[in-house]
Amino acid sequence: METRRVTEHPTTPRRSPAGADTPRPADRAIPHARPEAAAGGEDSPVRGSARPAPGDTPDEAPPGAAVPAPTAPGGTAPDRAPEDSEHARRGGDRLRFVGAATRRIARGMDLDETVLGLCRASVPAYADAILVYLRDPLPVGDERPTGPVRLRLRRTDRLPDYVDRTHPGPAPAPGAPVSDGTGGVTRDGPPTGPEPGPDARPSAGKRPPLPTTLAEQPAVGAAEVADVRTGGALAEVLRGVRPLFGTSPAAGAALRELLGQERDMPPGDRAVLAPLRGRRRVIGAAVFLRRPERPAFEGDDLLVAAQLATHTALGVDKAVLYGREAYIADELQRTMLPDRLPQPTGVRLASRYLPAAESARVGGDWYDAIPLPGSRVALVVGDVMGHSTTSAAIMGQLRTTAQTLAQLDLPPQEVLHHLDEQAQRLGEDRMATCIYVVYDPVAHRMIVANAGHPPPVMLHRDGTAETLRIPPGAPIGVGGVDFRAVELDAPAGATLLLYTDGLVESRHRDVWSGIETLREKMAETGRLTRPDASAPLEPLCDEVLDIVGPGDRDDDIALLAARFDGIAPSDVALWELEPRPETAGQARRLARRALAAWGIEELSDSVELLVSEVVTNAVRYAERPVTLRLLRTDALRCEVGDDVPQLPRLRQARATDEGGRGLYLVNRIARRWGATRLSTGKLVWFEVPLP
Question: Which positions fall inside the PPM-type phosphatase domain (predicted)?
């Protein structure tokens, strides 16, 4: 007799030879579903389970099918070899299913992927519905959670309400959109189409909806949060770790405590409660459910549930640890970079940072903008070799060193020299590249020193872009090398872009090809703006990052864009005053004259008082001429410089003191003030808001 094999969905009833629907034999094990449905198809070693049509021989029946044994002539039963073979086949199918399912669960790297892997592996191959509860909050590593144990519903999954039974075939892919017969599409929830009327009948080939029970609608009415009472039924089941049938007294009480008292459980052994135990403690529970028309679970299915629960719990532990490591890496990288850029006078700034990849969240790239005395600003971009927490830690130390050196107002080449020495003190092979730029908005000039870093690109107001020619220098950490600095023009309206090599270098192009591509991209962006305006900074940074293709980002990227607005000469007043007793009065007259020329005479009283106090402190100890400079930008800024390196300190003068109140007045009247050391002395400054 010719044998015909077909593959059926686990919920698809078998047709009789006459064409009428008849219930299937009572399949009681996993193998009545396709193993590839548990693992997405490609990971399963078995592509399907063959199903005999009515009339097939018993030895070709599906695993777990209760096929009546034929009667031998004379009324004697045959030997039980076919039954033993069937049992072995079902055991092998279980092993293949567990292997495919655990591989799918293990693919997840984060919490949601792991839980989703369990749901997709279990439905429909093992169960018709699943509910996954996890502790809230989840313990991380060795930490001991405090307070009561609370489980929160993390995810549910189920078969769609309608399954086509006209054409026996493979089960629908878990989670795939399935028509519900009313025009809607369902996925992990009720149909989204219009509700049929009371007299509506299901269309041909559709199974009518079953009564709403826990297996059909697991998420409807299920408790979102369940508190595990000490000594309660749920606590005892979780402590026991082993999966239990829902019909057992302990599991039944535990399910009512977990899901809510009002939920109706499927009849028979069609519910399994499996605790999820991680490496050290129980972290949740999974509930597997089957519909009434599907065969109930059997004893061997508890072993499968135990394997699924164990691998899921270990995956959750792994995902929680990975999430903590990712959080630490993100926090480390975030704290190593500026929270926000300063807003120095005469220059606008924008920045970007992109990690190398999702698995390498930390790196050695950094950028910084440091306000300097005299309204100047230092622009720094560096790159430490490597993508690890060690690289990030070295980067943080070098960035802190650069900030300290910048406050000493050292020349750029001297800053790089001290960074080189610091890198050698940190250990061997601590190498980095760095570019250091000092911009002066009054002089419209900049001084650039380079230590093995890619050259900056400047975009002019007219839309032309050029790569600046500066001495390349050796990387920081080499030792025994000299760094050179060059002074260049910084015209108003120009944009300077500093970046790391991750922007221009990849496996598909070399550094210089990438630099040329970057220059062309900036020129193209500059031509899109009006001739009398400069390209906006933030969109310019986004456009620049577009030169990095989807597969080109092999390194992290840091870039810093600076728009040079400068300060017009008409907004600057500068004098040199001899350190004499009458210098304070002279400074007051010069300040009053400048304020009158700028049309802000209403500030004369307060500015003259502050100028007199600061200049008096300077000429008291200075031996060389004192400089007085007034700058009119978004505020009125006054700067007084002398050759004494000691910085003034704000202090509370006593009633009997004759002095010590000058800085107190400056602190009360000025909007901001400060003092900075220079290579030739110090600079004291204050700002007063414009009227």
Answer: 347-564
